[in-house]
Design a protein that fits this description.
about 25% helix; globular; alpha/beta; about 200 residues; 7 strands; Rossmann fold
Length: about 200
């Protein structure tokens, strides 16, 4: 496993009110755009400290949290007893490793810009979904590189919406839609955030 790029910030990750507010907006967008129910088993890709899955947990049966950062997973583990659904926490680099599980849905917040090959990741997502399964992936619109002030393994300065829609469609996903979800406010500007949804 590679160096934990979030080790120095995991314990203060949720002290950033803008970050928490952004994920809250993303969760609201997901809840409004896709049908969730208490029989569903979701995967949260890049689950971090669990900000997103905390909000989604009352609506589903189980969430498998996947993150490459062990320190972020440790912060999530502390929340286990307060979550409203069953949870598994996996310390894994999903780009280079596979798991045998199939899911009714895949959710993700602000993680795809840390993925080197998004086309390959959408293909993997497709293979991990049950028939009729949904994805709800949120990330930054294309930006000039000023969003990140430190190196946490960033491969993309956000995404052109048409490019990420095409990547999802080319993986075989259907009913691909994209909507405004949020904006991250920083001292040097506001950075729009989208939500992409689709079905297998």
């Amino acid at each position: 496993m590679t160096q934990d790029l979030f080790e120095h910030k995991a314990d203060i990750y949720e002290s950033d009110e803008n970050r928490v507010s952004n994920v809250d907006n993303i969760a609201n967008a997901i809840i409004g755009c896709v049908s969730l129910n208490r029989t569903m088993h979701l995967m949260d890709f890049g689950s971090g400290t669990g900000l997103l899955l905390q909000r989604i947990s009352p609506f589903v049966r189980k969430i498998t949290a996947i993150d490459i950062s062990e320190s972020m997973n440790q912060q999530l583990e502390k929340k286990r007893s307060s979550l409203s659904c069953e949870i598994d926490i996996l310390h894994i680099d999903l780009e280079s490793n596979d798991i045998p599980d199939k899911f009714d849905g895949i959710i993700s917040s602000m993680t795809m810009h840390h993925v080197s090959d998004i086309r390959a990741m959408f293909v993997k997502f497709y293979s991990m979904l049950n028939d009729g399964g949904i994805i709800a992936i949120s990330d930054l619109d294309k930006e000039d590189g000023s969003f990140h002030t430190e190196d946490t393994g960033v491969y993309h300065f956000g995404f052109e919406r048409i490019a990420i829609v095409n990547a999802a469609q080319q993986a075989g996903l259907k009913e691909v839609e994209i909507v405004d979800a949020s904006a991250v406010h920083k001292p040097h500007g506001a950075f729009p955030v989208f939500l992409l949804t689709a079905k297998r």
